[in-house]
Amino acid sequence: MSSHRVTLDINGEPHSLDVTATQTLLDALRWQLDLTGTKKCCAEGECGACTVLLDGLAVNSCLVLATELHGASVTTIEGIGTPSSLSRLQDAFLAEGAVQCGFCIPGMVMAAHALLADQPHPDAATIRDRLSGNLCRCAGYPRILRAVQLASSQADE
Ligand code: FES
Ligand code: FES
Q1: Atom 2 in ligand 2: which residue has the minimum CA distance?
Q2: How confident is the chain (157 residues) per 10-residue block, as mean pLDDT?
Q3: Closest C-alpha to 116, from 131, 133, 105, 136
Q4: Out of 20, 21, 92, 122, which residue is the most buried by the measure of CB atoms under 10 Å away?
Q5: Domains, the chain, ranges and CATH?
Q6: Three-state DSSP class for 23?
Q7: How far is the CA of 19 from the centre of ligand 2 (A)?
Q8: Does residue 138 have its Cβ closer than 6 Å to ligand 2?
Q9: Which ligand is nearest to the CA of 98?
């Protein structure tokens, strides 16, 4: 299958990737760039495990074709914090004990990151609504909600 070269910004760094016509952003991140923090679960837009920011908006990367990304800016979970320097949201997830198996968490954090960038102090209904596309099989929703509320409460500190 022929490939196409796309140049895009990922986590603040320029990248040129050779991708096929059917390759998704999710697979390009995981298999070409080794950015495996973005999880592959349903691969059909149902679970949100693969959520990344595309030009600042939360998207399911399993539904985005890599060939469409020339000139785009992508942020993955690796781009918002590191193990030695967690983001406020990542710290809040740990503080609230919101991480069980952890599989859904990168997607949850990215969706919440997009929400708080948009609305620093959302109410509980808005948080639930904006995370409604992110499924947690461990059913950790109450703690996840509290983690986003905690990060929100620290937004102006
Ligand atoms: S892996 Fe993309 S939405 Fe489930
Ligand atoms: S913490 Fe296990 S799926 Fe959410």
Answers
A1: 101
A2: 92 97 97 97 97 98 97 97 94 97 97 97 98 95 98 85
A3: 131
A4: 92
A5: 3-79 (3.10.20.30), 88-153 (1.10.150.120)
A6: coil
A7: 31
A8: yes
A9: 2
